[in-house]
């Protein structure tokens, strides 16, 4: 038994890294495949197919090598165990036979011994195999832990998640363990404070249709780069039912404003209000219902065109008439009825079977149906050709009507008719006014306009 224990201990130590390496090789291979397919457009646009194939080829070979090594370890272990077992059986036969011969033991006793030895042998073999499986499991758990430990928690996001989960009173002890064992006691305290004060949804819808949306002295740094201040005391009022354009050079913080308005993150300092109420008083999922975002690359799901349009109202009954009304307003009816199965045509993964402009108009129809009072257009027309842009722009004009809209665009020609234009620089608003007012000021906006004019001349 001592020999068996020593064997098991040696086996445990020697096979752990081999199991780990094999699991890692498998994970690397599947990561490569999923990454390649999820970014297939980028791969194709860089003619990277061969590169990806050769990368995957080398990873498959590494997986094969680690598999062979693991197989060798397993078979050596199996052979040693079996040899040990048969040697001990042989010794038992010899010893027992000689004892029977000298009359020290009865034949029955020796036969029982041999029976027990067989039972013990199978038990030990089972034990060693179980240890083998356990090794694999420990190696996998180790890798999961190392991934979990390496990922910095995005506190702004975790904070929102924590609140949602508490709100729904999830009883799962494991989740509770994850969520309430963080070091940030203050965030949890804040969370409880807001939890007890969440306002009703009806109130939010009424407020957002009638009230202004204000960013008040908003400061923000991304959780993964806490030392880089992206927004540094930004204040801006989006007047109810009007269009505000946010312009500025690349990296000024425009998309960050969108992320905060959508509440994917919360400001680190300052606040966002609607009709004078801090938006943190409202549940995030309810907030999502009053904000619509149309961006450069709208995501469609691999469903039919009609299902994608109705996606904006997942819990409500949507009639075909409502869908067609929204689609006509989005200039999408003509192209949809010319598709093979009309409204029932499947759009493919991420809407890949439609053109960019068609996808955009389906996304606009979806937003029209959602009928959210706050609308964010983040570079919505920048990826389109002139004809598509005209169709999409006229659909957008209908969508913007009477909604509190924030438009982000690099091409200033698309924002000249906005009720107000805000120029963002270094995380602050440095100029605010209409197009003609800002041009007359001859400041940053005027020079941006000048630069773009030069570029087109
Ligand atoms: N998830 C993130 N984590 C860390 N830093 C980020 C993240 N997203 C953006 N940033 C940084 O925040 C700054 C502002 O980025 P943002 O995308 O808001 O600028 P932008 O004005 O929208 O630029 P562009 O016009 O090029 O889209 C940049 O310096 C950027 O590197």
From TrEMBL:
The keyword Membrane applies. Pfam families: ABC_membrane, ABC_tran. Keywords: ATP-binding, Membrane, Nucleotide-binding, Transmembrane, Transmembrane helix. It is a multi-pass membrane protein. Residues 1-136 form the ABC transmembrane type-1 domain. The keyword Transmembrane applies. InterPro entries: AAA+_ATPase, ABC1_TM_dom, ABC1_TM_sf, ABC_transporter-like_ATP-bd, ABC_transporter-like_CS, P-loop_NTPase, Type_1_exporter. This is ABC transporter B family member 28. The lineage of its organism: Eukaryota, Viridiplantae, Streptophyta, Embryophyta, Tracheophyta.
């Amino acid at each position: 038994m001592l020999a068996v224990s020593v064997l098991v201990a040696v086996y445990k130590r020697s096979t752990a890294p081999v199991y780990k390496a094999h699991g890692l090789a498998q994970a690397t291979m599947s990561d490569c495949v999923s990454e390649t397919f999820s970014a297939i457009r980028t791969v194709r646009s860089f003619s990277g197919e061969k590169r990806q194939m050769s990368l995957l080829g080398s990873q498959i070979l590494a997986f094969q090598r680690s598999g062979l090594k693991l197989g060798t370890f397993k078979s050596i272990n199996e052979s040693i165990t079996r040899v040990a077992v048969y040697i001990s059986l042989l010794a038992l036969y010899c010893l027992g036979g000689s004892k029977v011969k000298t009359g020290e033991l009865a034949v029955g006793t020796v036969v029982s011994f041999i029976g027990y030895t067989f039972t013990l042998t199978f038990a030990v073999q089972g034990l060693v195999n179980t240890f083998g499986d356990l090794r694999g499991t420990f190696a996998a758990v180790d890798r999961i832990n190392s991934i979990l430990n390496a990922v910095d928690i995005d506190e702004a996001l975790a904070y929102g998640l924590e609140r949602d989960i508490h709100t729904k009173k999830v009883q799962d002890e494991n989740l509770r363990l994850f969520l309430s064992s963080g070091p940030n006691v203050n965030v949890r305290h804040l969370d409880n404070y807001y939890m007890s004060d969440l306002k009703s949804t009806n109130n939010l819808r009424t407020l957002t249709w009638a009230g202004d949306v204000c960013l008040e002295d908003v400061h923000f740094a991304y959780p993964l780069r806490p030392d880089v201040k992206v927004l540094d005391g930004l204040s801006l009022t989006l007047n109810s039912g009007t269009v505000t354009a946010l312009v500025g050079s690349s990296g000024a913080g425009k998309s960050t404003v969108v992320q905060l308005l959508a509440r994917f993150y919360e400001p680190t300092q300052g606040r966002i209000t609607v009709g004078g109420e801090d938006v943190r008083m409202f549940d995030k999922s309810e907030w999502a219902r009053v904000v619509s975002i149309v961006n450069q690359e709208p995501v469609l799901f691999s469903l039919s065109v009609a299902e994608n349009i109705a996606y904006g109202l997942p819990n409500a009954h949507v009639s075909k008439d409502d869908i067609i009304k929204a689609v006509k307003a989005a200039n999408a009816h003509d192209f949809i009825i010319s598709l093979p199965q009309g409204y029932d045509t499947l759009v493919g993964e991420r809407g890949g079977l439609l053109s960019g402009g068609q996808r955009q108009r389906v996304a606009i129809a979806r937003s029209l149906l959602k009928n959210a009072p706050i609308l964010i257009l983040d570079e919505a027309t920048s990826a389109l050709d002139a004809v598509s842009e005209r169709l999409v722009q006229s659909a957008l004009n209908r969508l913007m009507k009477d909604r509190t809209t924030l438009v982000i665009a690099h091409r200033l020609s698309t924002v000249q008719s906005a009720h107000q234009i805000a120029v963002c620089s270094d995380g602050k608003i440095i100029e605010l006014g209409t197009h003609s007012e800002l041009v007359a000021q001859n400041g940053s906006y005027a020079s941006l306009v000048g630069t773009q004019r030069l570029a087109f001349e």
